[in-house]
Amino acid sequence: MPIPSEKELLEHACHFGHPRQKWNPKIAPYLYGTRKGIHIFDLEKTRTGLTKVCEELRALQETGKTILFVSTKQQSIPLIEDIGRRLGQPIVTKKWIPGLLTNWPTIKRRLQYYLDLRRSFQTGEVEKYTKKEQTQLRKELTKLDIALAGVASMTALPDAIFVVDAVRDNVAVLEARKLSIPVFGICDSNADPHAFAALIPANDDAVRSIQLILDTVVAELENAKIRKNEPAKSATKEASATVAA
Fold first, then answer.
1. Residue partners of 205: CB distance under 8 A and separation at least 6
2. Model confidence, pTM
3. Which of 78, 123, 158, 205 could form a disulfide with 66 if both were Cys (CB 3.0 to 4.6 A apart)?
4. Residues 6+ apart with CB under 8 A from 221
5. Predicted confidence (pLDDT) per residue in 1-29, tens digit
């Protein structure tokens, strides 16, 4: 999927920011002006930002790095969940767990407990407990599923995070910055562009805007994932050909 044109970005409402009274003055370089009291993004800079974010994330994907995708914004949750499935990258779509990054050793132990508990239900090992204990454990597993299922594959801190709404999920951004983990994502006119390693100045509220941006990002990363796997496939084919010979 090519980087959308400025016309496509306009058609998907990517240009709308927030009312002037809610803006972050640091976003000024990315704005075209105002219309009826609403800030309007410079879509040339939106397109440039989207291109840069895709390039940097693609490089991470190609080298097998972990990118944590974060959005607790209701309208974007299905899109983020789809990204998790398609890319095999961790996601957070429920409430951000305080300390997920900054208190990683504790979270990692909690994750291991969650995985062990989930496995015990899958293997039937849980049947060694009484019915009452099994019921309590199932309730606990349900809670842990909601909190940790999206990051169950994480074995270490992510190499980068991508946020849809840096204001709504500001704790995730703050934790990442504290640990010098690069932050990528959409930066609406109420957010601080200095919080990002690379940003997409655009509307982070409209579903059409979010979907176009995320579809572009995931298409780029899927291509990177395919390229990453191609050498391994080629090596397997060569080995098979050698054996056959």
1. 16, 75, 188
2. 0.89
3. 158
4. 57, 58, 61, 67, 87, 89
5. 789 999 999 999 999 999 999 999 999 99
